[in-house]
């Protein structure tokens, strides 16, 4: 498999970081929070795949729902006024649970095209409102909004820009709130004030009547699990409202119980104009994303019969098998999975806090089952691990040897997003294996 992989399979991103020289790690099977590789080695998945397998692996009710749907109706397009029962029911169930008036759902195939879809919907909205000059988009440094070309431009991670001619000149950024490394320090009020000032300044320089929308993740995931202070997103949302700027909450990671509730926006007490989701929607069992749209936006861009008047859509939008999976997963969330996630999340945060005494651990942060530790060589001065030693690669490898899958970010941040079904003893084992990995990283 390793030979065939090396010869024929492209691993996006990973192939550029030397993985192809070392060979791929092949997973063979999985159950709950445990994955088994092709050699039979078992590991605890501290990252739920790629922050997505919230329900854990091998869940029979999800398997049954997919099989049933494949037998009954394997495919139906969402185009041309056609549809399928699971897609319609899932949209209705989601709308019922979404914050405020986010009553309309467009199904994408994942997170990147969910974000892409919002860019098109937003542009159409302003055209329909007679304000086509509103064509400028703002997002945040360290943010991640997918790897489509447009999404990569909203994304603020340099690896996604190099050589692609993005960000486009209509894509602007403001600094990340990043409490651990914020020039204004870690005080919540100061961080919120500085983000507001940065957004005000950007609005002024670009022109308030030119800005179409603003994108924010409630917690910045791929940028290193950056947890803004409480009240931060609400303050930014209010500022956008005052300027008539559409606010898009990218909940591709935070949605579906990752931070505790079904949606982080509810906890943060905001109703965005759009909310993008994917990952936990189907818990990774089938590809699907969902864009939520408010009544206010929908009334402008749709013709009232449910057919959004935008030339946009894909063959697999609203795929009935993915939708059936989504319905089965939603049942699980409400049948104890969210509650278990909250309990396990408390254990995870307490466990990670207990690592603060380790000489390498500079910061511990997170909410619910979304967390990270940031490693430094000098806690006082917050000096990062030397990049030359490729710390993230080494940490990932050592954790793997210790039976733990984590995400190691380039800057020496180790990310955690375990399945919400984890038991407390599985969480404890993840912490113990992390400590062992950190001790070896000191060597
Ligand atoms: N937005 C956010 C906030 C994400 O974290 C991601 C994926 N990590 C995406 C969009 C893109 O999702 P996908 O990889 O499913 O295309």
What is the CATH first-level class name of the largest domain?
A: Alpha Beta
CATH topology grouping of the largest domain: Aspartate Aminotransferase, domain 2
Percent in helix: 25-40%
Determine Rg (CA atoms, Å): 21 Å
Order of helices and strands: HHEEEHHHEHEHEHEHEHEEHHEEEHEEEH
The major β-sheet equals: 7 strands, mixed
Gross CATH architecture of the largest domain: 3-Layer(aba) Sandwich
By CATH, the superfamily of the largest domain comes out as Type I PLP-dependent aspartate aminotransferase-like (Major domain)
The distinct ligands, each listed once, are: 4'-deoxy-4'-aminopyridoxal-5'-phosphate
Distance between the termini: 33 Å
Instruction: Find the count of extended strands (DSSP E, 2+ residues).
Output: 16
The backbone outline, from C-alpha atoms, is: globular
Strand order of the largest sheet: 4-10-9-8-7-5-6
Mean pLDDT value:
93
Cofactor: pyridoxal 5'-phosphate
GO molecular function, one term: transaminase activity
Organism: Bradyrhizobium icense
Keywords: Aminotransferase, Pyridoxal phosphate, Transferase
Protein model, in words:
This protein is an alpha/beta fold and 443 residues long. It has 2 domains: 123 residues, Aspartate Aminotransferase, domain 1 (Alpha-Beta Complex), CATH 3.90.1150.10; 271 residues, 3-Layer(aba) Sandwich (Aspartate Aminotransferase, domain 2). It is 38% helix and 17% strand. It is built from 14 helices and 16 strands. Strands 4-10-9-8-7-5-6 form a 7-stranded mixed beta sheet, with helices on both faces. Strands 11, 12, 13, 15 and 16 form a 5-stranded antiparallel beta sheet that branches. A 4-stranded mixed beta sheet has the order 1-2-3-14. A hairpin with a 4-residue loop joins strand 2 and strand 3. The longest helix has 34 residues. It starts with a helix and ends with a helix. The model has no long low-confidence stretch (mean pLDDT 93). The structure holds 4'-deoxy-4'-aminopyridoxal-5'-phosphate (PMP). The site of 4'-deoxy-4'-aminopyridoxal-5'-phosphate (PMP) has 14 residues, from helix 6.
């Amino acid at each position: 498999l390793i030979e065939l992989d090396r010869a024929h399979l492209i691993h996006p991103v990973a192939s550029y970081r030397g993985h192809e020289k070392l060979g791929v790690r092949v997973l063979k099977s999985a159950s709950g929070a445990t994955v088994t590789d092709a050699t039979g080695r078992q590991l605890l998945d501290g990252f739920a795949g790629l922050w997505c397998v919230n329900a854990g692996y091998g869940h029979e009710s999800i398997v049954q729902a997919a099989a049933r749907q494949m037998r009954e109706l394997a495919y139906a397009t969402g185009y041309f006024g056609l549809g399928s029962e699971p897609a319609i029911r899932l949209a209705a169930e989601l709308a019922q649970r979404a914050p405020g008036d986010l009553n309309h759902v467009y199904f994408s195939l994942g997170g990147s095209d969910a974000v892409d879809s919002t860019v098109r919907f937003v542009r159409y909205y302003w055209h329909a409102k007679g304000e086509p000059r509103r064509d400028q988009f703002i997002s945040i440094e360290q943010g991640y909004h997918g790897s489509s070309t447009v999404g990569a431009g909203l994304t603020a991670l340099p690896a996604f820009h190099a050589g692609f001619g993005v960000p486009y000149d209509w894509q602007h950024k403001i600094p990340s709130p990043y409490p651990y490394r914020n020039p204004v320090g870690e005080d919540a009020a100061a961080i919120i004030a500085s983000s507001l000032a940065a957004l005000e300044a950007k609005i002024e320089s670009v022109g308030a009547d030119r800005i179409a929308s603003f994108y924010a993740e409630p917690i910045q995931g791929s940028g290193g699990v950056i947890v803004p202070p409480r009240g931060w997103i609400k303050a930014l949302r209010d500022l956008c409202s005052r300027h008539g700027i559409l606010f898009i909450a990218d909940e591709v990671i935070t949605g579906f119980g990752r931070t505790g509730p079904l949606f982080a926006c509810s906890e943060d007490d905001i109703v965005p104009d759009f909310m993008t989701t994917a990952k936990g929607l189907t818990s990774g069992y089938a590809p699907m994303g969902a864009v939520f749209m408010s009544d206010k936006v929908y009334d402008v861009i749709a013709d009232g019969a449910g057919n959004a008047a935008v030339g946009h859509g894909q063959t697999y939008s609203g795929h009935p098998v993915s939708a059936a999976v989504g319905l089965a997963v939603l049942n699980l969330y409400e049948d104890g999975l969210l509650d278990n996630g909250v309990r396990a999340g408390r254990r995870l945060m307490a466990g990670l806090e207990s690592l603060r005494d380790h000489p390498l651990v500079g910061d511990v942060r997170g909410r619910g089952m979304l967390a990270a530790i940031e490693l430094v060589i000098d806690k006082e001065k917050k000096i990062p691990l030397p990049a030359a030693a490729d710390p993230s690669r080494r940490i990932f490898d050592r954790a793997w040897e210790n039976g733990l899958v984590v995400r190691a970010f380039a800057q020496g941040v180790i990310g955690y997003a375990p399945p919400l079904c984890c038991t407390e003893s599985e969480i404890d084992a993840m912490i113990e294996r992390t400590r062992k990995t950190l001790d070896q990283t000191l060597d």
